[in-house]
Write a sequence for this structure.
């Protein structure tokens, strides 16, 4: 990751006892471990850059996953019961987090599709503009040639 979390600032999580910068660093670390490269801030422009950015966005969206991980505490007394209770509590939290992640995934898909449509529209506009410029340049050459013949 070339961007420091403080330069990106895509996480703003306000909850007592939660450091949003640390949370952001952890997210970036996990994305990097999963091989997901976030698009650079600023970066190049043009159709190839837009396609590349959309591919990176698609990869980032597709890489989101949730998993329940409960570590065995190895307690001397009632270890199995404690671990089962912890697992059930984690399942409850997982249920609510999964619902929020599902809603965010739908938003992400809408944003992705909107960006894809916008990029295609911009590319069509650029192609049309280039065609019109070429036609105008040809017309200017033709007018200059006629003007040169009339003198």
């Amino acid at each position: 990751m070339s961007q420091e979390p403080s330069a990106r600032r895509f996480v703003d999580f306000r909850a007592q006892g939660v450091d949003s910068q640390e949370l952001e660093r952890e997210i970036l670390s996990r994305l990097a471990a999963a091989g997901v490269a976030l698009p650079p801030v600023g970066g190049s422009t043009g159709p190839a850059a837009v396609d590349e950015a959309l591919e990176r966005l698609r990869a980032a969206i597709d890489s989101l996953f949730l998993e329940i991980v409960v570590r065995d505490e190895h307690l001397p007394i009632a270890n199995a019961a404690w671990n089962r209770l912890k697992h059930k509590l984690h399942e409850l939290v997982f249920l609510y987090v999964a619902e929020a992640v599902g809603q965010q995934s739908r938003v992400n898909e809408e944003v992705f599709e909107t960006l894809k449509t916008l990029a295609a529209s911009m590319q069509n506009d650029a192609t049309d503009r280039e065609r019109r410029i070429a036609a105008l340049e040809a017309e200017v050459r033709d007018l200059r040639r006629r003007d040169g013949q009339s003198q």
Summary: The chain has four helices and no strands. Helices lie at 5-8, 20-33, 47-62, 79-150. Residues 1-38 form one domain. The chain has a mean pLDDT of 78.
